Amino acid sequence: MGDRKIETICVQNGWEPSNGEARVLPIYQSTTFKYSSSEEMAALFDLQASGFFYTRLANPTCDAVEKKIAALEGGVAAVLTASGQSASMFSILNICSAGDHVVCSSELYGGTFNLFNKTMRGMGIEFDFINPDAPIEEINSLFKDNTKCVFTETISNPSLTVLDIEKWANAAHSHNVPMIIDNTFATPVNCRPIEWGADIVVHSTSKYMDGHACSLGGCIVDSGKFDWRTEKFPQFNVPDETYHGVVYTEQFGSAAYAVKCRVHLMRDIGAMMSPQNAFLLNLGLETLHLRMARHCENALAVAEYLSSDDRIAWINCPSQKGSKYYDIAGKYMPNGTCGVISFGIKGTRETATKFMDSLELAAIVTHVADARTCVLHPASTTHRQLNDAELEACGVSPDLLRFSVGIENAGDIIEDIAQALDKACE
Ligand SMILES: *Cc1c(COP(=O)(O)O)cnc(C)c1O
């Protein structure tokens, strides 16, 4: 059989039962694994043999889901993490330590921005943020001798900027550093950034991948394409004394980044996904291709409705004709972007609050990108720690409502919006 299509990978990849084994991915609810000799165990500890020995490093349930996500993104390996936040953090800590520098898109998830700008800056790693739409010359001018990677989002949360992936990949590669991209909103169903030059893909699987808002998680995918064998990245090329002198690029070849992330960062810091959550994530992945299509279709229907209502001040739906990002979204995501749209209502802050409080079907929750339609006002919730200048730098205006269109009947969602607008704007 030739290369599997994305729909088939969603359903079939990962767990491959042998004769007489469970057809459905089992939950290996075990911290540890048994071996018959201490010699076998020692070989595992020295990375001379592969196998499971402790769930902080690897677990068969998680392993199957990692294989599925690696296949979905077209990478060589993946590592599941406890959350999207730990995926973003590990993706950088695997490359950078104190004194290193990262060039970032300024249009990032608020939690990622805080993680980088406060916590990781406090650990001695420098970050420069730049509008992702800036000309490549301006992006290039931020690179320094100690720059070790770039960090971006495919479709930014919540500003919905669609990234020119090739431009950013070119900027990174012309400085011999890898490009990391957070592909949470697009998912590999709508965009596979590795095909456009990205080297590392990270996800908050808590969103569309799980899809049901029932399990927190994250993932790091290694494309296997970046060549780490340069002086910039000694941690991949000099012997790791904690593993009796293993050299990651020599022993693990194109999967050096993913293996180091697991055996170094997971071993030392933890933040592994639990087998139970990996099982739930896998169930979500089995229908990801169906759900993404419906999310996109419904979001477009809602966007069309909002555009026709003169009580709406502005609307941002990258897949909608007339959007600033329509062409670029068409290039990288021809089948659609995601179910999240944003808009502002004419009036005051109170108008927005009254609108939200009047919704009956759409729920006010700190979440996006699951089956149920939900709404959030970032300036007063997820982004409330940011000051006005930081808000603007993240592409979030004070009146922005983030509306995550679910997979219900589109007419019902629109009817709910209409009655809430009537109440808010009366
Ligand atoms: C939610 C989100 C994160 C953080 O993920 P958690 O699973 O909540 O830790 C990171 N990036 C993006 C784009 C997100 O939407």
Question: What does this entry look like structurally?
Answer:
The protein is α/β, with parallel strands linked by helices and 426 residues long. It folds into 2 domains: 6-284, 3-Layer(aba) Sandwich (Aspartate Aminotransferase, domain 2), CATH 3.40.640; 289-424, Aspartate Aminotransferase, domain 1 (Alpha-Beta Complex). It is 38% helix and 13% strand. It has 17 helices and 12 strands. The strands form 2 sheets. A 7-stranded mixed beta sheet has the order 1-7-6-5-4-2-3, with helices on both faces. It has a 5-stranded mixed beta sheet with strand order 8-9-12-11-10. Helix 3 runs parallel beside helix 12 and helix 15 (349-358) packs across helix 17. It is globular.
Walk me through the topology.
Elements: H1 6-12, H2 38-45, H3 60-73, E1 77-81, H4 84-93, E2 101-105, H5 110-122, E3 126-130, H6 136-140, E4 147-153, H7 165-174, E5 179-182, H8 187-190, E6 200-204, E7 218-222, H9 234-237, H10 248-252, H11 256-269, H12 275-286, H13 288-307, E8 312-316, H14 326-332, E9 340-345, H15 349-358, E10 363-364, E11 374-376, H16 388-393, E12 401-404, H17 410-424
Parallel strand pairs: 2-3, 2-4, 4-5, 5-6, 10-11
Antiparallel strand pairs: 1-7, 6-7, 8-9, 9-12, 11-12
Helix pairs in contact: 1-3, 3-12, 15-17
This protein binds pyridoxal-5'-phosphate.
Pyridoxal-5'-phosphate binds at residues 83-85, 109, 111-112, 153, 157, 182, 184-185, 204, 206-207, 216, 218.
